[in-house]
Design brief:
Blueprint lengths: L5 H14 L36 E4 L2 E4 L1 E3 L4 E4 L14 E3 L8 E3 L3 E3 L6 H6 L10 E4 L4 E4 L6 E3 L4 E5 L6 E5 H4 L14 E4 L20 E2 L10 E2 L9 E11 L12 E4 L6 E10 L4 E4 L4 E10 L4 E4 L5 E8 L7 E6 L11 H5 L7 E8 L12 E6 L5 E8 L14 E5 L2 H9 L4 E8 L2 E5 L7 H7 L3 E2 L21 E2 L5 E2 L6 E2 L2 E2 L43
Parallel strand pairs: 4-6, 5-8, 6-9, 7-10, 8-11, 9-12, 10-13, 11-16, 12-16, 13-17, 16-18, 17-19, 18-20, 19-21, 20-22, 21-23, 22-24, 23-25, 24-26, 25-27, 26-28, 27-29, 28-30
Antiparallel strand pairs: 1-2, 3-4, 14-15, 31-32, 33-34
């Protein structure tokens, strides 16, 4: 309900009295200060009032705007503003609110209409990213959701442009986080984010020119009004721009049983820019790519309970500089990766692989700090798993699982490196389209899987320029320069910065391998720019709720 401003009534009364007198040329205009709060958000809320900073849009002659609460500084948007069954179909800008205010969406935030057939999509004029609605989130803004049934989807043709700065990052999180009631490693506080694109996925069929039709794969979370689809034949498509973005406390199970990730990138094209991205405390994966060719630069994953990096269905992008830090008591893989969607080892995938439709990731400068725990939410902590026809190119990286003793002993479940499937093994043996080179592994369980050719996996990897530390099965082996003289890989008070390669020690000896086309191994170096400073959460003092479980005091 709107209440008339006292100032407005007083000014109007004075004006009426003066109207019957000689005012001597004096004009007294009413001052209109609208102090109302409209909690409906269905008819424009406080639309038109300069006192309401909430996002608004006009559609079919009606203005819709969020409701502003001056006591909290927050804007609230109900399901009549946007929801899965009421998607955003016009452009919208979400701005930074004063005094740390947040934009709280009571429904799911779906951007653009979803289409599951070529005819309807073509009639709507949706053929590439930018044809549909665009959501712009400005630097410093916080977007929040109330519970685990609510999540965010950017449909094909639409774009999310969320470009923050190191001083003003953009945060997608939960209402519990906004209200300060969430624990540092709490998950399932809201659903997470799904971005759908027109990129290539090997779940669809392609001709010799890599063209397809009726490619509409069901995305994660797709059920009823929550349905969304992805896929196409444009690996250069753009779903927008994400930079200095944090996604926190996600990963709930939604209507169809899917466990949503921090962000799911479904056939997202290489025209999409993703740089300086963090996922923090997620129930399922940190980022998962289903096909497409989107690439990442400067990625931080903390306290991911399943796989921090998950790859499937022919993703062919790259990751440059990535730091993964598992919880002391939870987390599955640093990388879990599949080459072919719905893979069966009895099928012949020669034609698919010859067409380049299997996953072919390029990862450079990755540091994985894993916990060798025995029974996390999903599975024990582990390093890298490559299987199902994937052709990886992994260089200048480290997997470190020695900060604590292996809870399982030397039985194989907390491995650093695992390689499976005939296609992947053959590609690594050939060494032309797949390679694992110039990496260091420090786990009690060194490898699982293989062999590759005539060699077991460790022997093959060592011959191809990788190095394994000898970590005891029943004791921790601290890899920092200040603690152990025989294993020296990391330095600094946070213990996440790589030592200069020439000064590293493994098994009481110099490492004997060199970084390839960069100055150091791993994600960060004390001698280089720290790309995590200023915008990340959970890592540095002043922006975290707890210290890292392995950092040196």
């Amino acid at each position: 309900m709107k209440l008339a401003s006292n100032k407005l009534l007083l000014a109007a009364a004075i004006s009426a009295v003066l109207a019957g007198c000689d005012s001597g040329g004096i004009n007294i205009a009413p001052e209109n200060n609208d102090n109302s709060v409209n909690n409906g958000g269905t008819d424009g809320g406080n639309g038109g009032s300069t006192n309401n900073p909430c996002a608004s849009y006009e559609k079919a002659g009606s203005v819709k705007q969020g409701a502003f609460d001056s006591a909290t500084g927050n804007c609230t948007y109900n399901a009549a503003f946007v929801d899965s069954g009421n998607p955003l179909t016009v452009d919208l800008v979400i701005s930074k609110l004063d005094n740390g205010g947040s934009h709280i969406f009571e429904g799911s935030l779906f951007v653009g209409n979803n289409y599951d057939d070529d005819t309807t999509m073509g009639a709507a004029g949706i053929a590439e990213g930018g044809d549909g609605a665009k959501l712009t989130v400005q630097a410093g803004a916080t977007v929040a959701f109330p519970n685990s049934t609510k999540f965010m989807v950017v449909n094909r043709g639409s774009q999310l442009n969320a470009v923050g700065t190191a001083q003003d990052p953009i945060t997608f999180t939960s209402l519990s986080d906004v209200e300060g009631t969430v624990g540092p490693e709490d998950v399932q506080q809201w659903g997470g984010m799904v971005i759908n694109g027109f990129g290539i996925t090997n779940k669809c069929a392609y001709d010799a020119e890599m063209k397809t039709s009726e490619c509409h794969v069901l995305a994660e979370g797709a059920a009823g009004k929550d349905q969304s689809n992805y896929g196409g034949d444009n690996n250069d498509d753009s779903s927008g721009h994400l930079e200095y973005v944090r996604v926190k406390h996600t990963g709930a199970e939604v209507a169809n049983g899917d466990e949503l990730n921090g962000i799911t990138f479904s056939s997202v094209g290489a025209g999409t820019i993703v740089k300086n991205l963090q996922v923090y405390s997620t129930y399922d994966d940190g980022i998962e790519m289903f096909g497409g060719a989107v690439s990442f630069e400067n990625y931080l994953a903390m306290y991911v309970r399943d796989d921090s990096i998950d790859i499937d269905e022919g993703w062919s992008g790259s990751i440059t500089n990535a730091l993964v830090i598992q919880s002391e008591t939870d987390g599955n893989h640093c990388i879990e990766s599949d080459g072919i969607g719905s893979y069966k080892d009895t099928n012949d995938y020669t034609a698919l692989i010859d067409a380049g439709l299997n996953s072919r990731p390029v990862i450079d400068g990755l540091t994985c700090i894993i916990s060798a725990q025995s029974e996390g939410t999903h599975d024990p902590g582990a390093g890298w798993r490559f299987r199902e026809g994937i052709f990886p190119m992994i260089t200048n990286s480290m997997v470190i699982g020695s900060f604590a003793a292996d809870e399982n002993g030397a039985e194989g479940s907390n491995y650093c490196l695992r390689v499976e499937s005939a296609e992947t093994i053959a590609a690594l043996e050939a060494g032309t389209e797949a390679a694992i080179t110039s990496n260091i592994f420090a786990c009690a369980d060194k490898t699982k899987g293989g062999p590759i050719g005539a060699d077991d996996l460790e022997t093959w990897a060592t011959a191809n320029g990788n190095l394994f530390a000898n970590v005891p099965a029943d004791a921790a082996l601290n890899p920092t320069a200040a603690v152990d003289t025989g294993l020296q890989l990391l330095e600094g008070p946070l213990s996440v910065f790589s030592i200069d390669t020439a000064s590293m020690m493994v098994n009481d000896a110099a490492v004997g391998i060199s970084s390839i086309e960069r100055a150091y191994l791993g994600a960060l170096s004390a001698g280089d720019t720290d790309w995590t400073v200023g915008w990340t959460y959970g890592l540095h003092d002043g922006s975290r709720a707890q210290p890292l479980w392995f950092e040196q005091q």
